[in-house]
Amino acid sequence: MSTQPIRDYLTKQLLIEKNIVTYRSLSRILALNVNIAKNELADFHATDGQNLAATYLLSGETLAAQKRLDEDIDMDDRDPYDDDADEGEDGEYVPQTEIVLVGEKELESVQAQFVTLESFHVYSLSPSAIRDAGLLCTPTEIVRDLDKTKGAELAAVVGRVIGADVNVSTKPQPGWGGRKVPPAPVAGSSKTPAAGTSMVKKEEDAKPKEKAKPEKPKATGKLDFSKAKTKPVKKEEEKKEKPLKADTKRKAESRAPSVASTIGEKVHAKMEESKKGSKRKSALASDSEDEVAAKPAKPAKPAPRGVKRKSALASDSEDEVKATKPAKPVVQAQSSVRVRKGVVLSDDEDDAPARKGKGKAKATAVDSESEAEKNLRAMMDIDDDAVTRASRDAREPEPEDDPMEAIIANMSDGDSKPAPVKRKPKKVVPVGKNGLKKKRIVKSKTRIDEKGYMVTEDFSEYESVDEEEEEPAPPKAKAKTKSTTADTAPAKAKPAPKPAPAKAKPKPSGSSKGAQQTGLASFFGKSKSK
Amino acid sequence: MVPIVPLDTSSPSLARPLTTILPPTDETPSFLITSANKSYKHQYANIYFVRLRILRDVVEENARRRWQGIKGDPILVPKVLEVEKSQLCYIVGTVYMDMPLKPNVMEDIARDNSIPPPPPLSKFYSPDDNIMLEDESGRIQLVGERVVGARLVTGVIIAALGIETPTGEFEVVDICYAEMAPQPKQEVEAQAKMDVDAEPQTDSWIALLSGLDIGSASPADAQIQMLVEYLTGEEGGPKEQVSAAQISRLIIAGDSLAPIVISAKSDSFEEKDGKKGRRYGYDATSFSPHPTLSLSAHLLDIARTMPVHLLPGETDPSGVIIPQQPFPRAMFGAVSTYGSFSCETNPTYLRIGSETSGELTRTLLINAGQPLNDMLKYVPSPPNTPLSLLESTVRWRHMAPTAPDTLWCHPYFSADPFLISQTPDLYIVGGQQRFGTKMIVEKGEGDVQKKCRLLLVPRFADTGTLVLVNLRTLDVKCVKFGVKGMSESSEDHARADDASLSSTQLNRNPPT
After folding, report:
1. How far apart are CA A486 and CA A480, in angstroms?
2. Mean pLDDT of all residues in chain B?
3. Fewer C-beta neighbours within 10 Å, C or N terminus of chain A?
4. Looking at residues B73-78, what average pLDDT do you find?
5. Does B37 touch chain A (CB under 8 A)?
6. GO molecular function of the protein, one example (chain B) (predicted)?
């Protein structure tokens, strides 16, 4: 009855390699139904493998189970205080099936214990008698490997009974108990955002960007024109040929002279610095170059851009600095508001409600109001350099768009320093695997600095959030982040001197960052006022 | 050579019946600790207060009905301290067991810390115990044969009928409990009963398991292996496979992993360096040095074929306070990708709907056994069994009255989630020494019957028992897995492993 391949396999495994073969491993490897595999083992044992040791599996009702029943009856009615002592204390008799694994030697004695024997088959064959039942588990590894790789088809062949409600899914089953519905399934896994962006941008560089600033649009909100939209569009434009861009640029200029002129100034300044500072603009030079250089160039852009430019300004030529400095004030004084509000920026932060991770230009245009459409159109008209510039600008100034502040910031810090500080709160919170926004948590780290002093630093970090917690967390987390990230040593030093010089003394000595310090300062301040 | 009848290989392909999990209701709440009740600031007194406030009305009502019109015409005294001497009356309050052997936090604090604490007692019970009844006003001591024999534990709300004695104690004549909580009517039940014999094969069963104890010194590897094979429907002949195919889901009621062996810990105390490796060596199973890996491999095998619900238990690496929160799914690796694998709280309610047996909904209350094991310490054991005590909890309408006294529980502020406000159809308790089951029935108003199937699920590592329950009829059967003629555990095997491991460690240690 058994076929040659099965015999060959069993011979090789048992007689040559001296392995244990169970009905399961046989069924998995040769893709047989388990019941056929059991019969094959018995067959092989009866013919070729007479000197092999077999283990048997018996099932049925045993004498021991019936004895147990008798014991239970003996234990009845022991409790005199039981209000309704009508039944036995140990409850009802329940039918019990016993499944026993037994070696050849003891088979007959075990068989005798069974009152009814419902099934009886060979469980495994082994080169010698198995002393330790744990050894029978060794072939399980093979079984698991095959179950893992072959999956459902094999399971059907083998005869596993698989429930229809068994499903593999990356997200937890919707419901209750331990399971919760992820609020934003799209943003849920880290894979999806990446896929979404690549769809829009169709370029590899999309991914690094997303990683650097995960889901930027989400935090800033609704129509984050400058960030979510301009970038994709810009990239698409970059792909187009240069002449076309020039055209659009001209168009923009002709249409809105005042705007265009300021933009033009900006663009010039930018072009110069950025050519040195970052490779970004070089990417514009040609299509092919863009494609090739995209990967290394782009990732550098989002997060460290400010830093790069700063270094360029500081180290490079003096002219650069001069060129940018005068340009800036003009821009801001004249038309920065208009530029931002009307065309390029569309007052980004203020009216921007939360938007989900897929910041697609099209999607947003559809669901946003007419203003958004207008903005989009306007943006299309502007050449991409200007757009880039604007988008960068948008991140720099305060949400309030105070031109004066921006000027001051630009003047004093060479236009880049305030940027990282202010950017942080806007940064959108990365999303955890459960689809919830990660929470910013302040942790402290203690290390020993080069002088040998122990320094404790607070730093904040994103941490994934439990399903329930997410609701109350955000306001607190935000407040914390602000205090810890934005406030550096100078910020903290300020409140200290105010209350009293005497009391302020210990604080500067601490001179370190940390939420505790601020707490202490406010404590003293309070007590003073009272 | 034993002649073997070849198995019938032409059996039709089997399919599991489908069951669905229904959302929790107000009566069967979720035990998840959410941000709403996450605070640990609150005092435990609130739990007692809420418990008394909710159950007082019920108990009073029952007591009135029970003692109405008896001789002496007892009246309800609203506060235990207002009891008048030598007048028959009844009072309602919370039982407090004053037991000399019960652990006392004051003694803990006062104890000399240089002396190691005495091992926890297996029983608090002693003949010197005093039983008190307390409410907001104060406490009164209950005496009398009736109350001594009533297997009371701390935290139960009762009504006591009696007379205050000249010594200021309350001589109890009778006791009244809240009795079973209401149960939603199962209209389909009567109709379903009609076709009992029609198609018993379409009934869906659920499998219950507890105490796998993976990672213990003597792991029941072979039995667990057999269990997995049985559940997946591969083991045995066609008959076993048919009955295995009727199992629609598996519930693991705690104690899946063995606690870390204390002896190994103290061993390695002296040689701190080898601590980690040593302990892993002791815990090694034949599959893998990590019990968790082994457990998740088994879970994966099972979860490929049916939905699995996993509760944490006493020995599991989870919090100690009740309700224990679900395991993080990720710790089980590949199986966490199965939507049908769910980690539950301990205790938990599960409402299971079954389409195949006619729009049937069953409410299951499952815990891993800590409340019951704790209550057993309060009562003398020969007359009381786990099953009788479990029955009492249903009649007290409280699944864990000894929390927060001796059973650690979360400091709930505005609720006592352990109140049983709806009698479950199945009350499943894991982590038990022996199997036991009992159907308790109480006549409600009209001809409504409240029925509850109590189930004690024994530890698999000790008994090799898998419990199966028919969702429609609430019938129970057991499947016991055993190994004969071989050493059941791979203890020697593990030892050998361990020896080789420690020797390799020794080899490895000198360079470091």
Report:
1. 10
2. 80
3. C
4. 85
5. no
6. DNA binding
